[in-house]
Model the fold of this input.
Amino acid sequence: MKKVGKPVFFVLALLIVAFTVTSFTGIKTRYGDTINTFIKGADDIRWGIDIRGGVDVTFSPPAGYAATESEMSAAESIIKVRMISQNITDYEIYTDMANNRIIVRFPWKADEAAFNPEQAIKELGETALLTFREGLEADDFGFPTGVTADVVILEGRDIKSASRVDVPRTQGGMADMPAVSLELTPEGAVKFSEATGRLVGQVISIWMDDALLSAPVVNTQITDGNAIIQGNFTGEEAKDLADKINAGALPFKLHTENYNTISPTLGEGAREAMVLAGLLAFIFIVVFMICTYRLLGFIAAIALAGQAGLMIAAITGYFAPFPSFTLTLPGIAGIILSIGMGVDANVISSERIKEEIRSGKTIDGALDIGYKRAFTAIFDGNITVIIIAIILMGAFGPPGSAFSRLLYPVFFMFPAVPAGTIYSFGYTLLVGVIANFIMGVLATQFMAKSIAKQKTFRKAWFFGGEKA
Amino acid sequence: MTVKFDFIKNSKKFYTISIVMIAVIILCSFIIPPQLDIQFRGGSMITYSYTGDIGMNSFAETADSLLNERVTVREVTDIATQTKTFIVSLPGTESLTSDQMASFTQGLQAAFPSNNLQSLQINNVDPAIGREFFLKTMVAVAVASILLILYIAARFSKIGGMSAGVLAVLALLFAATIAYGAFVILRIPVDNNFIAVILTILGYSINDTIVIYDRIRENKRLMGGKTPFAELVNASLNQSFRRSINTSLTSIMAMIIVSIVAYFYNVTSIQSFAIPMIFGLVAGTFSSLCITGPLWVRWQEHKLRQKAA
Done:
């Protein structure tokens, strides 16, 4: 750490500024209507539903009903089908098998001003209407029409169960083929036998509500109520279809008395407020640092901008292939707080350097001792914040996320929590500390030691000394 | 540049102030216990935006008759956007099923057809789920505190032994209590921000204390073992004073700016985060400067006297 070259400051400062700017703006190219994203900017941030508006619901079977695991995954599949048929693709769904709970979060539909959240929640929880229908006639919107609308062969209650099976292939030597096995009730078997007898070589389509699930062709009449649905299914697809068919046979309605909704107008106002607050806080801190610590304050400002950039990059996923992270209002508060706290590293070291210079040390000596002495304190403070951030993420994170698995022994007796906003705060806090180590501790030190080599700046005053 | 201030001589004043503050907070939380947010206690609160004019009474009456019970209605106008809203709360911890909620909103819209009534926000929480959530957060606080105390005890036994570790933890608890006091005294409902604030204060406030102890340890070496504890600690506190104030100032100002902006934009979920955070940050700085140092001096002097006796 002793020798830091003269150009280091300019190289580092330029790199940090370039990085920070791109972390906010992103890098995209555009040919006509196709946009290629190389680096994701602030526009690509996935906002939490407390900002973009949306719904957060916890569904459970009616009180007192002990649902099995396969019933819960059938129930989950109902919600998934309904989400997709409503054109909502970026929903999150977590099923807590141990506690019979399904947590769903989905954003307000962008193009619908009059979206009615109460109605949406109500429809999501309703019993799924599963039907086997004759033929496959559908209108432009994909709804059944004609004979398909008129002739319902089977309904959910005619089905006993569906499961994924593996059917050996007829041609030798190849792997088994995933398929769905269907077991019908005695009444179902009678109806199905009649229909399959009539429709050999034709299609029987399977629907949930108004969404088409599958449209197999009848090969032969099925009289015993045991059918196999084959297609070019992967194992995953076969299980998925079986879940959906089971959903139609689900003996209960999903119940909810736990839901939160927020409209986008409210959320976006809040986001604007927080962005404004962040900007003002940043400006305040930069002015304060430069006035108090002069050149070291200026370096702190660059490092701080870099820290903000790193945090944004950790949220957007910066390079296009990396996943992004949902940012909520407490998450934004976490960014602002991290910046306020992160500058501590600069204050502690700058204050120390100033003191050493005033006690007669050379600039280089003061820089050396200042950064060395400040490090232990910064390190300890940061470790304790990391402990806190991990606990917050573990307690409030979605089931299955890394930290919630890590802390499972602590929270095993508690179900997944319905509110995900604090998870994002834990994340920004954690990222803030890491970014602070990189920018506030390491980069700052290199920049300061390098700029001290420049003749122009080799004056004690720049580093906090009295005016010569 | 050092500020000349005798922290040790004034320590009695600081103790009195702190004890009075803690007493007031404890007393208040018994007399007017902090409210739990809907998130934790369960219940239902719906915010409707509207245009034109609706009399508060006629709105409340319509809501009462639709639900067949007495609801509480508050009228709130957003300062920044001038949106007019009614906030409807159900009595106690009652919540509505999604069917009931849907017909309630439809009923209201039918009763005031020309006012473009929209549900801006619904918080409807099953009391059982709320209770579990609350318990979980309490466990999170407990676990975090234990981990921090272990870490701090381990770190401080190197710096100043047992005494320093115990006092550092005491300072943290003081800061966390003051942050909690903000919820009690300002009547901020305890929601999941509470956990975020308390834990952040626990994690952050130790920073200050560590820097000061570090300084004491260093000065002990520089000033020689014979220096009286009071003088040693006073010098260290005075040297750390500016730094302590400046580090806290940046965090506190950031949170003050956030609270002010959140107030004007009516972002309640952030006000309940930022305001208690300010309380906790101020208390953290105060306790590490004015309580831990002087108390440590007493502890050490006590130990010396015991040795002499």
Observations:
- Chain A is about 50% helix and 15% strand.
